[in-house]
Amino acid sequence: MLAELRRSPFLDDLTPTDRRVVPLLLTLPVGVIAALLAAVICGAAVFVAFAIGGGGVQATERLMAMIGGGETPTSLTKVAFVLSLLAFINGGMALAFVGVAGLLHHRRLISYFTTAPRFRWRLLLLGLGLFAVTIGPLLLASAALDPKAPGAPILAIAPDLAGRLAYAALVVSLLLIAAAAEELVFRGWLIKIVGAWFPDPRAVLVLSGLLFSAIHLDPNLDAFLVRLAMGVGLAWMTLRLGGIEFAIGAHAANNILILLFIQPMALKPEPPHGFPLEILVIAPLMLAGHVALAEIAARWAPLRRWTRLAAV
Question: What is the pTM of this model?
Fold first, then answer.
């Protein structure tokens, strides 16, 4: 299967411009400044939107204080505020940072999303659906077998069907945006940069996965290994399918299932804990699952036709 990765169109479009040192060195400080400005603008926009459409400035300030105190959001309004900040701040930062990188490397922004002529929404939906129906049941089973599991957040967030449907709609729509932001930076931009200097796809997979896991700054080794496996698997999807659309869907599906059925959003970092040995089994299985999903999408003719993958 590595032979297919070596022929990935996501690496084939690299040019000597992508290996220039000066644009790369400028991307980091200039891109970070642009990303921070975007974060301020997007965060202010979310604050104003909730102040106008909700309970006013004071109520929105209390929502900000909730985040600062690391409280778990327990109402629809609180969840909507936190997820909106997560989605739009991360989305704005990702677009600003990668936009700067594109300008400095003379590369169109769309090339960090896909090598197809346009963004492939059907491939995104396929990643979302395939992950949900294949790996999703395994996640739900592991939560059901955990005696310390807090219970499905969608059942606790509201007592009625309307409130639960509203929660599901918020989670799905806003986590798709948040996943797209992460994929744009850690698969779209980072794979281009790593691939420009290390054309061997094995190096691309490992380095992009390591950087993706390390940037989360989680002190727990088990969390590092799980994110490493997930990062390598999402990078495989990107290389195999010539873009980040499928990876966005799979990434979002993982987060959506967690917030709907496994555990509520935590605003405090995970405290240090011992290393659970079962991670040595779970992490390789997670990587294998991501690879298998990419191969199903790439090899199964009906799916290729539906997603128009053959046109890439």
Answer: 0.94
Q: What is the pLDDT of residue 310?
A: 66
Boundaries of domain holding 213 = 2-311
Q: 6 with 203: CB under 8 angstroms? A: no
Over residues 202-226, the pLDDT tens digits come to 999 999 899 999 988 888 898 899 9
Q: Which amino acid is located at 194 in the chain? A: V
Non-local CB neighbours of 178 within 8 Å, separated by 6+ positions = 83, 86, 87, 90, 91, 252, 255
Give 53-122 as a DSSP string: HTT-HHHHHHHHHHHHTTPPP-SHHHHHHHHHHHHHHHHHHHHHHHHHHHHHTT--GGGGTBSSSS--HH
Say how far apart CA 68 and CA 197 lie, in whole Å. 40
Please state the domain count of the chain: 1
Cα-only R_g, the chain: 20
